Amino acid sequence: MKQVPKVIFGRGSFKKLSEVISTYRDDGYIIFFIDHAHKKTGLVDLLPSDKNDLTFVIDTTSHEPKTDQVDLLRDEILKTKNQELPGLIIGIGGGSTMDISKAVSIMLTNEGSSRLYQGWDLVKKPPITKMGIPTLSGAGTEASRTTVLSATDKKYGINSDQSMFNIVMMDPDLLENVPDDQKFFTGMDCYIHGVEASEGSYINTFGSAYAKQSLELCTKVFLKEGGTNDDLMVASYLGGASVTNSEAGVVHAMSYGISLVLGYRHGLANCIVFRQLEEFYPKHVPVFLKMLEINNIVLPENVTKGVNREEMSVMIEMTYRMARPLTSALGDNWKNILTEEKIEELYSKM
Ligand code: NAD
Ligand code: ZN
Asked: How distant, in Å, are the alpha carbons of 31, 166, 294 from that of 24?
């Protein structure tokens, strides 16, 4: 079983970042990728960077990570540093910024475009050592063995042990400034990871234990039963670890289509899809509907109304690419259950 070898957890941990990374300084310069929200929170000014280090402030407002974006970052780094490789890469932010840091760590040592490595176990060479510091919890990137990137025709993960972080620092104080709706949507990604992992046939005993505890903590937060940011941060990590020991399911398979064609962000796209999937997840969709209500979240309706024939085909095709999660969720004959007509019918309800 693949695990993150070093996890630092606790309020105030971020203050020790300089000390933690000092042991990696002998291996070379350090690259920081930090979400642009932290210009406002002031975290950018607290980075323990040296003059040889590189810092990239990532604007995550307009789109989720793209293959072209990762390839350009890799090229820029190699040009700026005359092909010299860094000793450590640090990603600070939500799933987007952490995924960019993971992808660049792989692409600095593997040739060609990141598009070549989207899929399962395609990475050939060991990546640069990397560290994740979540400042938004739920995506579970900090514990997962995937790096999700969008290309023009697909949204797909680099699913590989090489996508896993070597160190993760979890400081619940860093969640303080997350807006409530963003906290909810990304938090639901966590809830859905736990649901899909535990309901999927690819689950093992480790995955089940992670999923159970993740769901319990996540529910405590979003049913407002006293859950804290500490609970949410741990739920996110365990949710990521549960998928690592199982697979995603029908929600992720269909939500990628919504994100690819309609541009909805991952957490929100998952919520739009999950609401319509009670027949596949009868125990959990009612809990989700209750969480929506308690948190005063109103989801957009009729999002697929203006979708034309060609776009619908792209969405169906995207869902069909997710054979592994769909096999875990529905069995080997998933294509007989989730026929093209059935997918279109479900999308049309969204
Ligand atoms: P995100 O990283 O896209 O961030 C969403 C918004 O929150 C951004 O505008 C960002 O600026 C803001 N933000 C982040 N931290 C903040 C803070 N502390 N204060 C205020 N604002 C803050 O959102 P996400 O939901 O964490 O990640 C979604 C991405 O993760 C998608 O690309 C999705 O495909 C990917 N994902 C990856 C995995 C994986 O295992 N690799 C799993 C699930 C999702
Ligand atoms: Zn997800």
From this structure: 12, 12, 45
DSSP state of 135: S
Residues 260 and 301 both lie in one domain: yes
Cα 329–chain centre separation: 19
Nearest to 6 by CA among 238, 206, 166: 166
Domain-located, residue 224? yes
Type of residue at 79:
K
Q: What is the pLDDT of residues 19-39, one digit of tens each?
A: 999 999 999 999 999 999 999
d(CA 270, CA 191): 10
Single pTM value for the model: 0.96
For the segment 252-277, what is each residue's pLDDT rounded down to a tens digit? 999 999 999 999 999 999 999 999 99
The answer to whether residue 203 sits within a structural domain is yes
Burial state string for 178-214 with b = 16 or more CB within 10 A and e = fewer than 16: beeebbbbbbbbbbbbbbbbbbbebbeeebeebbebb
User: Do 303 and 322 belong together in one domain?
Assistant: yes
CATH number for the domain that contains residue 170: 3.40.50.1970
The amino acid that residue 265 corresponds to is: R
Ligand 1: list residues with CB < 6 Å. Answer: 35-37, 41, 60-61, 64-65, 93-97, 99, 135-136, 138-141, 144, 146-148, 174, 177-178, 182, 186, 189, 240, 266-267
Count of domains observed in the chain: 2
